[in-house]
């Protein structure tokens, strides 16, 4: 009698364990190759985008057309009641960029400058903020609007000054040579030289070692004043003011620290005798 085949024997078409391992390895290699192709395509797409961004940045910062686009963006961010014009422009947007015959109007405020030199930061305009590494102004006049408010006794804190600007400005190095400030053409102060840094936006003013030489005296300012933040203040100011018919100038130092809830104010100096006032 012949022997029946073993029911548990391997089928001749069934792959061996070695063949299964080889097939799994082949699938794994294909999967890895597909991942490499996808990564390569993604990398090439990212590189293409970066090259386009770099080309646009180069065009914006080094060409006349890029400079004009930047200036147009600055004008577009001004409020409807403000206008900015200039007679001619020189230099790329990467700086230094020189504007001649600058005329800025905002409501009843009027500013005219013979020359304004701007050195924008790498990100010159984000949102409504103009960021400058340096700014130089020569031969300028600022005419302030008339004060139409009737006289009122000072009230706390309404008598404290507010900060309102058409465009937030941050300039690390400001140099002004010649700035006459008037009100309805009547002279207020003639600034011959100003140096320092400035960061101003509506509701906040920060000054960094601002030094002013003028016909009214020499002044220095450093610190912050933020009426929008509960009038938070950390300000130091000094003044050296000539006195008519006297060889001894008036010397004053002013310090204010705190907020609307608690503010410490001190005034000291010589006028020409000793002066010392402290308010808390």
From TrEMBL:
Disordered as annotated region, ranges: 1-28
Record organism: Cognatilysobacter lacus
Membrane topology: Single-pass membrane protein
Cellular component aspect of the GO annotation: plasma membrane; TAM protein secretion complex
TM region(s), chain numbering: 38-61
Family matches, as PANTHER family: TRANSLOCATION AND ASSEMBLY MODULE SUBUNIT TAMB
GO terms, biological process: protein secretion
Name the UniProt record assigns to this protein: Translocation/assembly module TamB
Keywords: Membrane, Transmembrane, Transmembrane helix
Skewed-composition ranges (Basic and acidic residues): 17-28
Subcellular location: Membrane
